[in-house]
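Write out the bound-state structure for iron/sulfur cluster.
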Amino acid sequence: MVLVKKVRKRGGASGLGSPSRATSSLRPVLVEKDPPCAHACPCGTDVRGFLKALSGGGRRGLSEAQAIEEAFYIIADRNPLPAVCGRLCPHHCETGCTREAYDGGVSVNQVERAIAEAAINASWPLRPIDDGVDDGAEPEAVTVIGAGAAGLSAAYQLARRGYEVTLVDPRDEAGGELRYGIEADRLPRAVLDAEVDRILALGVTFVGGADLTEFESAEPRVLKTKIYEGGAPVATGAIAAATHFGRHAAGLLDAEIRRAAAPEPPRLQPVAKERIILDHFARVERGATTGATWPPAEAVHEAQRCLQCGSCVECDNCWKYCPDQAVIRPLEPGQPYRFKLEFCQGCSKCAEQCPTSYIEMR
Ligand code: SF4
Ligand code: SF4
Ligand code: SF4
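---
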């Protein structure tokens, strides 16, 4: 589709010099914010990011499988157990979703599950982090005690940073309460095994049936996580938080060993939901949850319902509404919009008409 904007002369009847024309010393700035979904996710998953990768893949020339792969690696950066989460997490992200009060929150959980199971079916491996730094040092050995969600997450984050990780647990198999506390009809063991094996394939050595006291005293670096004792009710809602705990603990240990900066950047300011212009978006029914994993096309369709709160949805509103031709549209999809501030009169139209609250006047 080719959009043509009627160009008015700057300074004409509706431009500079018009008596009704609002001007100010403020200027527009693109300010990315934390969307409500990510803010509500205990694991800190980049929900908006993976939904955008999936929904916009076609426009960027990607096949459906390539878009799913890209979305998978965005999820996996923070969560190595997305198929498990997709089945067990009570999806706080959806309750917090801006779309909830409009036509139903985006079914993030179903989309995540579809992506995660596609990743299992395609045997996509977890990836090490390549930070481009090779200091020639031997990788340090780290023992992670407890092979539940937190321990698996910590082992993954350490292994992908080059540590030699030994994961120990008093139980024979890895998985903690995911394996020993949750019925197989809620979490099929094939799904759990696939995600556990994928972590071990990064080079993590698992020692089951272990006497923990041996490891606690013998190893120089030990990271303890919760051990499943059995008998207590299993809080499946805690899986996302446990995954976050493991990642955070691993990050702190890595920072301590390498004397590096804090592992995760501070969160962005949250989006004010009342600033999202819901009427800008057509109502689209939320995908039906049937209990089965969605096929990829359904996941893509649902991802397209995401409003990209606090980020650019490439709607062109800023460009269309600017009376001074001070907004430059990108030539390629996915590139940022820019401002020609020397033309800008500070009228705020672009910020007022940005449906996702991405533009601030400062
Ligand atoms: S619409 Fe998208 S970005 Fe906004 S809260 Fe919902 S899932 Fe997150
Ligand atoms: S709409 Fe145009 S003139 Fe008005 S603040 Fe935005 S960029 Fe500046
Ligand atoms: S108005 Fe639309 S195109 Fe412009 S910054 Fe906001 S979301 Fe992006």
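---
Residues 11-19 have pLDDT under 50 and may be disordered.
Residues 171 and 216 are 16 Å apart (CA to CA).
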